[in-house]
Design goal:
The chain is of the alpha/beta class and 251 residues long. It has helices at 33-41, 57-65, 80-88, 108-120, 184-191, 197-202, 206-211, 234-246; strands at 7-13, 27-28, 31-32, 49-54, 70-72, 95-98, 126-133, 145-148, 154-158, 173-183, 217-220. The chain has a 7-stranded mixed sheet, sandwiched between helices. A two-stranded antiparallel sheet has the order 2-3.
């Protein structure tokens, strides 16, 4: 029988945001957005511990007030991956889950779906999630698309439409949901690598992994598409508040 894997979830929660400063603390149906994410992630069946990686005392205070575990990190990190790497460096763990701090309707099942491949196959170093999208999102550069090989490993991620239906055929297009799982040692390794060419062009840090020749397992989630909705602007927050009210989720 294989030894139990210690699975740690980390939510990077940077206070600064170019389009929406302080968004992790923005009120959403009576609770700060980061609390929504934390409470949703806490429902995961496979997480052993959950932390919020913060860079600001205001965020740390709010997280601790609602009962969460906050870890202070450096403010100069360029990505959430780097912030998570600092957080887990001295924490005993086997598998690390990078949970986006701006997806308040996160379905905890997505965490478990992305962790499961590591429990089934010890050779897996990194995994992520995809979900099918409709034609109205095909051309939206904010919707990151992913294509995979026959074994469900990522071939490429892009803000462009991939695959491109040259003959106008109806195709399935999948959005990449930015939830990542890593072996701890692999996370620490890639966090030390410089930004790659494609990563800089598309502004997608997962392309650094592919350019270095590593594989990323991609799991199609069974969750609703709304579970991956992100908040990037105040307008997104207002839209999400309306969705929460319509679904009667506010407490």
């Amino acid at each position: 029988m294989s030894e139990k894997q210690n699975v740690i979830g980390v939510i990077p929660a940077r206070y600064g945001s170019s389009r929406f400063p302080g968004k992790v603390l923005a009120d959403l149906a009576g609770k700060p957005m980061i609390q929504w994410v934390y409470e949703q992630a806490s429902k995961s069946e496979l997480l052993d511990q959950l932390f919020v990686a913060v860079d600001d005392e205001r965020v740390k205070k709010v997280v601790e007030e609602f009962g969460g575990k906050a870890v202070m990190t450096k403010s100069e990190h360029q990505s959430g991956t780097d912030r998570i790497a600092e957080t887990v460096e001295k924490i005993e763990a086997d598998i690390i889950v990078n949970i986006q701090g701006d997806q308040p309707l996160l379905d905890a099942r997505m965490i478990d779906e992305a962790v499961q491949p590591f429990l089934d196959d010890p050779s897996i170093k990194m995994s992520t999630i995809k979900t099918k999208v409709g034609e109205e999102e095909y051309q939206d550069p904010a919707v990151v698309k992913v294509v995979v090989d026959e074994n469900d490993f990522a071939l490429y991620f892009s803000r462009s439409l991939i695959p491109y239906p040259r003959e106008g055929k109806s195709i399935d297009v999948f959005e990449h949901v930015g939830l990542y799982v890593y072996k701890k040692e692999f996370l620490l390794e890639i966090s030390k690598l410089p930004q790659s060419f494609l990563e800089k062009i598309e502004m997608l840090e997962q392309l650094r992994v592919l350019e270095k020749g590593y594989k990323i397992k991609v799991v199609e989630t069974k969750s609703e598409h709304t579970a991956g909705v992100s908040v990037d602007t105040p307008e997104d927050l207002a839209k999400l508040e309306r969705m929460i009210q319509a679904m009667n989720l506010s407490k």
